[in-house]
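Risk register update: the risk of archive-format incompatibility is retired. Evidence:
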Amino acid sequence: MSNLDKDWERIAKLLYRKGIISLCSGALVAKRAITAPVGRIDSSLSYEHVYIDENIRFDYFKPKEPTSKHALLLCPGSAYAYPPQRSHHAWAQYLCKKLGWPVFIVHHRLSPKYAFPVPYDDALDTINWIINQAQVYHFSPDKVVLVGESSGAATVAAVCHAFRDAQKKAVCHQVLIYPTLDADTIVDDPNYQDDFLVEKNNRSKMLEVYRRYYAPGNPSDPRAWPLNFSNYRDLPPATILLASLDRFYHDGSQYFDRLQAHDTPATLQSYDGVTHGFISFIPNVKKAVLANRWLVSHLKKTVLGTSEERAYSPET
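Archived output:
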């Protein structure tokens, strides 16, 4: 694992000792269980789990003194099959505290019992419901930032396309973190040999599991695989955050190229020495801390017009 960041390598070895090898065997949810805090809610925030019905559920974190009328809606990585974990709560609390915005974690029913497109439809319904209740939750319905991780990033991308097509001006910015966007492309790149979550030659196996169990049906369905959309114009400005050793790296970089080619503002940020899943390892991995600091300062700069971004480059 010579190319791995040292902090990240330490976590990788822990995962290997625990017998967690591949995303195909559920490594992501098990990884989060290992690294998750005990579920404490920060005293500076209020928290509520909201259950409207089986397809509309979310976690709600609110700062005691919001700094703007923006809201952040978070679609966590789930492979469409795993619920949000405690580490997502810790991540959401970090973003809520640092941004001063309410943060919502979007839930959905789970594959394979509820196969795709049910997870996407649930997420879309939940996002729409939250936006329609903006006055209740004290944010402006046209100042929504959507953040997605892994499969959640695919959901965010697809929701932005749906809103554009419906002429719904709600999302002011989208953040896609190591998104999974393409069902078919297998990239053979030696740089990815250290991706312990998606092992060498294992992307094809993972995609097979996705297609068979979690997102069955048409592998060209852009709601599951947004690189199959044809029109990338007039979408919300995008930030794409990638891990250099991730076997899905090219999904995000291709999406960035598509956005730029269609004149949609986009920023690409990549972190060396880390793999798929690193973003929620706060505070255990320095690159995860740096990535989250950069994301917060970048959103303040691009969405609010403030400038703190200079301090948190990938190698700071």
